[in-house]
Every structure is written in C-alpha cells, then in structure tokens.
Amino acid sequence: MGMKATGKLLKVFSIFASISAVTIGGGYAMIPVIREYVVKRHAIVTESEFLEAVARAQSVPGAIAVNLALILGSKIAGISGAITALFGVVIPPFIIMIMIASLFKNIISVDAFSGFLYGIRAGVTAILVYLSYLLILSKFKKMKVLVSLLIITLFVLVLKISLFWTVLITTVVVYVIQGEKND
Questions:
Q1: What is the largest CA-CA distance in the chain?
Q2: How far is 100 from 52, CA to CA, in rounded Å?
Q3: Among candidates 152, 113, 102, which has minimal Cα distance to 129?
Q4: How deeply is 99 buried, as exposed, middle or buried, from its count of CB atoms within 10 A (0-12, 13-18, 19+)?
Q5: What whole-number distance in Å separates Cα of residue 148 and Cα of residue 142?
Q6: Around Cβ 88, how many Cβ atoms within 10 Å?
Q7: Any residues with CB less than 8 A from the CB of 89 and at least 6 apart, and which?
Q8: CA–CA gap between residue 166 and residue 125 (Å, rounded)
Q9: What CA–CA distance (Å, rounded) separates 72 from 54?
Q10: For residue 137, what are the CA distances in angstroms to 95, 123, 131, 142?
C-alpha cells in the first residue's frame, strides 16, 4: 500500500472517528455531520453520491451510521476504506463506553453518588406514575389499565424492579390492553 493510499485511509478514519466521537443522538444525527465533512469540507464525494449512499444505507438492515460508513468508505478507498471507516465509526463510542463503565465502577461505591442514583430512581418512578395517570385520563379510561399500572408501580416500589424492566412491563401491559380496545 502506497503512501497516498495510507494517507487516504488515515483521512477516512479520522473523519469518521471524529464525527462518531462527538455526535450525540445516534446514526441519523450523524448524517448531516458526515455530509458536512465528506461533501463540503473535504469534497471526497459529490452531493449526489452522498445522497445515493444514504439511500442505500437506509435500505439495508443495521445501524445507519455503520452502513453509511461502510458504503462511503468503500466508495472512497475500496474494501480497505470500508473497513477503515467502520473502525472509525465504531472505536470512539466503544472507548467512551469503556471509560464511562470504569468510572462508574469506581464511583458507584461513593455514598453521595449512590444516594443520587437512589433519588433519581425515586424521581423516575414518580414521573412514570404521573405519566401513567395522564395516559389513563387521556386515552385509556379502562379500569384494567389503572389496576395494571398500580400493580406495576407497587412492584417497582416494593420489589425494587429496575427501570428497564419497569418500562418493558408497562409497555407490554399498555400494548396488550390497547390491543383489546381496538378489537
């Protein structure tokens, strides 16, 4: 691989890594930023090539940012460009998650932080109860929903079920009851 090809791959990696490291909001939030870099700033691909790549990235399964990186990387520098762009878009969030996990592991034992998380849990529970109440008043004026959400709330408070399971169970219950309503 020549110096020119290596420089091109380094540019592809740096573009996708810098976008991936700072873009908040997922793959679709990255599309305009990727466009800004590859079409406007560096003029690596044309506007029409970029739009075609976005259409192709949306038409295949997978994360849009990963698909778009693979397609554009391939367009820019072939298979090695696709792999380089893929690493560029995946490595920064992976490193950030590892850093957050290691920090979280160290500070979870701090009483103030632990209390903060406990307070957030109480706040989220209160918000879920309030939102459930609003849902009942606005759309689901059935007694089944009220009783189900009350039971779920009691499970959260008494059994200390995690937020993930609470949201999942609430979603399923409301979906099932709403499905009964539409029959």
A1: 71
A2: 36
A3: 152
A4: exposed
A5: 10
A6: 24
A7: 16, 17, 19, 20, 30, 65, 66, 69
A8: 9
A9: 9
A10: 45, 21, 10, 9
The closest of 153, 175, 177, 179 to 166, measured between CA atoms, is: 153
Angle between the 111-138 and 163-182 helix axes, to the nearest 10 degrees? 10
**What does pTM read for this prediction?**
0.57
Read off the amino acid at residue 44. Answer: I
Of 65, 80, 61, 105, the residue nearest 13 (C-alpha): 80
pLDDT tens, residue order, the chain (183 aa) = 566 778 889 999 999 999 998 876 667 788 888 999 999 999 999 988 998 899 888 888 888 889 999 999 999 999 999 999 999 999 998 998 888 888 877 777 778 877 887 787 777 777 767 766 666 665 555 666 667 777 777 777 787 777 677 777 777 776 776 665 544
Which amino acid is it at 83? I
The HSE-up count of residue 155 (CA atoms within 13 Å, CB side) is 15
